[in-house]
Amino acid sequence: MKANRNIVIYTLALLLAGTTAYGQAGKKGKMEAWISNPDRSALLQKQKNSLSFTNTDNGTPVIDVDAAKQFQSIDGFGFTLTGGSATHINQMPAAAQDALLKELFLTAGNGIGISYIRLSIAASDLSAEVFTYDDVAGDTALAHFSIDKEKVDLIPVLKKILKLNPRIKILGSPWTAPAWMKTNNSFIGGSLKPEYYHAYANYFVKYIHAMKQEGITIDAITIQNEPLHGGNNPSMVMQWQEQAAFVKEALGPVFKQAGLKTKIILYDHNCDKPEYPMNILADKDAYPYIDGSAFHLYGGKISAMSTVHDAYPEKHLYFTEQWSDGKGSFSRELTGNTTRLTIGAIRNWSRNVLQWNLTSNPSLTPHTDKGGCGQCLGGVTIDGTNITRNSSYYVLGHASKFVAPGSVRIASNEPEKLDNVAFRTPEGKKVLVVVNNNPAEQQFQIRENGKLVAVTLGSHSVGTYVW
């Protein structure tokens, strides 16, 4: 017991020493800057000269960082690994594939350290074909349940990712229940029939167990991707009353009986309907089973996440999808999505930020017919062994490379058009992500503990500052 106590004391001493060292670094001197410019003249580029803290206030706007004021913990930053994304990666030559995965999922060298990925449970609209894991009509016992189709590309790629980062968080989201469980017997639209609530709950359990047998832990599931959009292929409509009933009557109790620790997350749709998850959270019978709510931003304002947080502060929030437009502007998406997502979602209590989707090819295929997205641009475009890094790669890389899971958001003010968010990492480092939304280059200062660093950031550029 004495030896164990000594180990604990020694470990605490090391942690305190590390915290003190980082605090002194902030006072004495050195800050790194990593910059991306909208004209691509710099892309997540480390600046050669380190910045120094001084006692001098030069009169320019000040971003005050206060690590004493802490908010939510961070689970990670990343993308959806769609079926198509997995196929693009798995078809690469071995050496090129290995190099790309290290770049995406490690932080060393040029790595951006993706720490959170979302999967579609069976097909999404960026799959080559539509399928679920049990398409045998009437199979309520799920005797024909199988994830074999995922063993071609998705699971092999996931296993390689897990070798690089065994602690990566994985979220599963279904685009539809099996068609035979639905009111219209179709992969597109329709709703889940109440008589199949328990069968569908067991479908989730089967999925989680099957993935676990492959060495893949599903940390969380959302109940339905975009439950208010029935026009996608595949898709399923689930009004909040239906989702509440499904959670309290079937999914929650079935997960509890199965002893699953997998989190249940509500909604998974746009910021224009915060009342959707709030109505479910108001149901005392559904409430205990729910970890939190997930949002997209194709409609509404990101501040809707704070509306839900303020009403239910003990429940978590997640940002799970925003696309990048294959016909869009790199400069506009770099600036806009960093402002709205990397900064905006986190400042509104999200524990993660995910974009859609991880990889694409030059033709933006595969995607399903009659509702699949033919304009969705990946974080990277894979063309044989050639890799093009697109806007979302940098939008997320400006955080994922520096902000490890377990970091916490800390306080920072926002001078006009200097949108920003600050973090304290588990190692005690401070990270500040800033977008200059001014029409011209902007000089400003970063202040902590009374010491200031003077910096300059180009118009609509993104900067990450680490000390």
From TrEMBL:
Q: Glycosyl hydrolase family 30 beta sandwich domain: from which residue to which, for each copy?
A: 406-465
Q: Name one GO cellular component term.
A: membrane
Question: Which molecular-function annotations from GO does this UniProt entry contain?
Answer: glucosylceramidase activity
Where does the signal peptide begin and end? 1-25
Q: Which UniProt keywords apply?
A: Glycosidase, Hydrolase, Signal
Name by which UniProt lists this protein: Glucosylceramidase
Q: Please give the SUPFAM superfamilies that the UniProt record associates with this protein.
A: (Trans)glycosidases
Claim: Hydrolase is one of the keywords in the record: yes
Q: Which residues form the Glycosyl hydrolase family 30 TIM-barrel domain?
A: 74-402
The record's similarity note reads: Belongs to the glycosyl hydrolase 30 family.
The organism is: Chitinophaga jiangningensis
